[in-house]
Amino acid sequence: MIRKEDVLRKLPDLDNVLTPTEREEVLNEMEVRAYRKSEPIYKEGDRPSHLLCLISGKVKIYKDGVGGRAQIVRVVNAVEYFGYRAAFSDENYVTAAAAFEASVIASIPIDLIRQLIMHNPQLGWFFVRRLAIALGRSDARTVNLTQKHIRGRLAEGILFLKESYGTDEDGCTLSICPSREDMANLCNMTTSNAIRTLSVFAQEGLIAIDGRKIKILDEPALQKTSRIG
């Protein structure tokens, strides 16, 4: 059983800007749920009703593109908030979200968040900063996905997963084991191109592949490949 008090303590940046009364309101309304690997969290076109926060696990935000091929637009780290941009703009979701692996997510009614923001400027500024940071990352990613060649996009994707999710104890093997389809969707390429380019990277000694596991062998070369695109 996950205690909501323990969950809120995992969100110090949010907890610190709430008054004691607001904290109790959040605790009373908060829900905590576990999601299985690949389980949908919300779908494109759904009406947002809650602020979501990933407590543990991994979540992908994606959008179906031409021909039904999904494009992963970003990944969510623990502890990170998501799903509130559409709510703040009074829109339906323009993306979908699903668990990359078993995950625990806290949800707080967005109506309560709006109400608290009206009386707590610190809380409002808290979300303004997060939206601004997310916009900057989105702009940079858009440029990279549209201007880099396949090798550059895949190298960047591998480094992005390392930065987002870290590595195993060896310091080289990605702690996340994405499918080849997920790698392709993350890097804006076909699955066959992702498989072929990963094999080339392995032949060149940049990485080692063991099933879905990816081990970075030459990070400076991988960074150079990402940089020159």
The overall pLDDT, averaged over residues, is 87
Structural class: alpha+beta
Distance between the termini: 47 Å
Number of DSSP-assigned strands: 10
**β-strand amount:** 15-25%
Order of helices and strands: HHHEEEEEEHEEHHHHHEEH
A few lines on this structure:
By secondary structure, this protein is an alpha+beta fold. It is 47% helix and 22% strand.
Task: Give a written overview of the molecule.
This protein is 47% helix and 22% strand. It has helices at residues 4-9, 12-15, 20-29, 85-88, 110-119, 121-147, 150-165, 180-187, 191-203, 219-228, and strands at 31-35, 40-42, 50-56, 59-64, 70-76, 80-82, 96-99, 103-109, 207-210, 213-216. It is elongated. The chain has a 4-stranded antiparallel β-sheet. A 4-stranded antiparallel β-sheet has the order 2-7-4-5. Strands 9-10 form a two-stranded antiparallel sheet. It has 10 helices and 10 strands. Helix 5 (110-119) crosses helix 6. It is α+β, with helices and mostly antiparallel strands and 229 residues long. Strand 9 (207-210) and strand 10 (213-216) form a beta hairpin.
